[in-house]
Every structure is written in C-alpha cells, then in structure tokens.
Amino acid sequence: MELFSAIVGDLVSRSLSFMIDRYLKAEPSVDDSLRRLHQLLLRIRTIVEEAEGRNVTNPGMICQLKVLREEMFRGYCVLDAFKYRTLRRDESRDEEEVSHSFALSRFNQAKRIRFSSSSSNTPPSIVVSMKDLQKMVSGLEDIIGDTKEFVVFLMSYPPSPLYRQPYSMHLYLDKCMFSRHMEREHVIAFLLSSSRDHDHLCAESVEVLPIVGPPQVGKSTLVENVCADERVRKHFSLILYYSAENLDAEKASSFSETCVTKHQNNDAVDGRLLVIMELVGDVDDKAWKKLCSSSPHPQGSKIIITSQSEEITRLGTTQALRLQQLQFEAFWYFFKVLVFGSTDPEEHPRLASMAMEMATELRGCFMCAHIAGALLRDNFTAQFWRRLLAFSREYKKYPFASSNCQDGTSTKDHPRHGWEIAKSKPAKYFLLRNSYQKALAQDDGPKITLADLLFGSVKRRGRFEVLVWKSYIPPYYSYISNCTLV
C-alpha cells in the first residue's frame, strides 16, 4: 500500500510539473506580443535616428544601419497590419456612402503580407498571422542583442547639422532624401576614390559611374544630394550639369556650351572636374568617344550618368548603381509619416487602416505618396479618405490609367484619366497627357494644380497645363501635365 501511494504521489508530482512547465512555456498572448514588438521597435528606431543624425562613413556600419532600418520598417509594417486587420470589416456600413462604382473591397483574410522578397509593383495583402508576429519579435530581439558595439562606435562620429523632433518628422521627410543613405555613401566613395579602370570607352583620366532606374525613382535627387556634400564640393574644382533626352553626335559637339555650372571651387588647384549627365535614353558610342576626346580632363575627373536605359551601363568604369522603388514596408513607414504629420496614428486607427490600404495602391511611387499624403492631411475626415481610397482603386482599372507611377518601367507618356472626387458621384472628368518635369522659378509654372481638378474648382474648359506636384528638395523639379476637361 505504501508503494502504491508512493507511485501515485510521484505521478501526481510529475503531472503538476508537466502542467506548470507547459503553462510557463505557453506562447505569449497577442497583446503581449504586440506590446513587446512596440518596445523593440522604439529601441531600434532610437538607434536608427541617432545614426542618421551623425556623419557615419564606415562602410560596415553603413551596411549594419541599412539592416537595422529595413528591419525597423518590416517591424512597423507587421505591427500596423496586425492591429488594423479587423478594422476594415467594421467600415462596411460607412462605405455605403460611396457610390456602387467606387465600392471598396474588404481584406482577404486568407492572404498574408508579402515582404521584401516580392516586387514593390505588386500590391501586398495587409494581413499577418500570429506566427509572423512572434517571428518578428524573436528576430528583433536577436538584432537588439547585436547592436552594442554598433552603438559604441556610433558615438565616435560627429553629429550632423540636421536635427529633427518627433512631432516635425513629416516636415523633415518632406524635405529630405528618404532611405537612400547607403546609395549616397556609395556614390561619394566613388567620387573621392583615386583608382581607375582603363578598359572602357572614355579617356583614361576619367572614371564613369552609371546610375540607372525607372522614372521618378530618385536618380536626380540622389545625385543632387551627393553634389551638395561638402566633401564632394571640396574635392572638385568644377561641377557641371548636362541634361538631354540622349547624347548623339550633334549634341556632343555643343556639349560644353549647354552645360550648367552647379558649383565652382576657386580654392582647388588640381582642376578636377565632375560632370553630371542626366539622360532619358542611351548614348551613341561615337558621340561618347568624341565627347571624351574633345578636351583634356585633369587627373581624377569623374562623370556620373543617370538614365532610365540599361544600355548606359556599358560606359561605366565601375559597376552601375541601380535604384529600385521602395519595398512596401519602407514605403508604408514613409507614407504614414507624410499622411499623419504630427498627429498620432494610434488615435485614429480606422484612418490608419485606410491609409495602409492606400499605400498598397500607390506602388512605391514617391510623387504619389506626396500628393496623396498632402490631400489626406489637409482633409482629415473618414468620408474624404474613403473617397480618395476608392479613387485610387478605380484609377488603375480605368482604360487610360496606365502611367509611369503605376508600372515604374515605361518611358512612354500614357494618357491618364481622372475625375472629381469632392462629391460622391463624379461630375467632371479630365485627361492628363504629355507630362514632363522642369526646374521652375518660385512663381513660374501653371497656377492650376491637380488638387484643383480633384476638388472640382476648375471652371475653364479646353486644354491647359496643370501642376501635378512640386518637389521641395533639390533639384526642385515641378511635374507638369497638359490637361483637357471633358
């Protein structure tokens, strides 16, 4: 009997221990995981913003900063997607205010978010699972544990003159180059280097860096930002700028006459030149050789060519830099800041849910993000946000809705049809075509804006020019289209 009692006691003890262990090892609740993810993201964001506020030049630290920044974007995307996943179902009654042709689709709960391995041109689903949430928390905990040395080295770099406060972040992002820090340092390293590759079409004394990418991806902005760097300005005696559709023999003959002087350093004695060539298409080989041999280039001179055409990569003396549109996670972080400004998105979860849906429709387009962000920020009502979201959904389905911002690869100018969204039922339609970009003076350019068309405040008929968007960062391009009201 005593033996039986001992066996039963041992079994009970083992069962209790097993149950306690299972309880202690149980998966954390959704709220606990969300709270933990939020805490980890705050720590990583603090490190990233501190690093961005310092002139970090070490290539290894720049790579590590890139990883931290990307994981921060991914983490916030998972956090927001998980919080907003059920809010859209509660919006169905409100969506009745929008006309049937503008009805919004609900989330497909069977789909899950696609991360950076997917193309930014494919709009992701914005629903995540508990497994995604826990995996992100675990990954960020590992990353935080590996940042101690990074933070120590970071403190040795001097602060950058740029300073921003959390509540003015949208003003900072509206006037800065977003998420191109690694590319920027890559270009600067090329410009300040002294090595040469002699196997190319141009003169031996000139090194060439091609920068290629789709329209409006930020090629000109990147180069302009690099040229404004003090290290670059001190290194070259003269920085020249040339812009054309392409370079042929006729244009090569007048190249020096059409160049614009962007910067002149009178203190430099070596005479090094930096030539920036902004092209849309290709370069004729004969024209290129003629250009390179037309005048002597001092030792250490450099050329940067930007183009949408992959063909220019053959002119490089170093590997071409290819710019791609932002992945969705980074684009969502950027767009959310632009949309909400100094307002906390946590206070408006339903609006944040709609903003996240809209971000999937904009396909990583910077210009679209600025346009939509300004419209939403100035009209902070759920009714207007639903209409603009419906507009963005229907816009890409329209027969003429194909545009550079949508496909990100076409060099042709497709007509784009739009309509007034100020009212629930469209009363006016317009056609935009023959778009172009131009650096304009402060008061130059069209007075009618895209917002005027969308709000139905344009009274004139016929054809006229419309200011689609004006950039507030160098090179301060204005994007203009010819418009016809129908």
Automatic annotation (TrEMBL):
Mind listing the UniProt keywords for this protein, alphabetically?
A: Leucine-rich repeat, Nucleotide-binding, Plant defense, Repeat
GO MF terms held by the record:
nucleotide binding
Q: Does this entry carry the keyword DNA-binding?
A: no
Know the name of this protein?
NB-ARC domain-containing protein
Q: Which residues form the NB-ARC domain?
A: 199-342
Quick one: a GO biological-process term for this protein?
A: defense response
One Pfam annotation, family name?
Answer: NB-ARC
Q: Which family does it belong to?
A: Belongs to the disease resistance NB-LRR family.
**Which positions fall inside the Disease resistance N-terminal domain?**
8-94
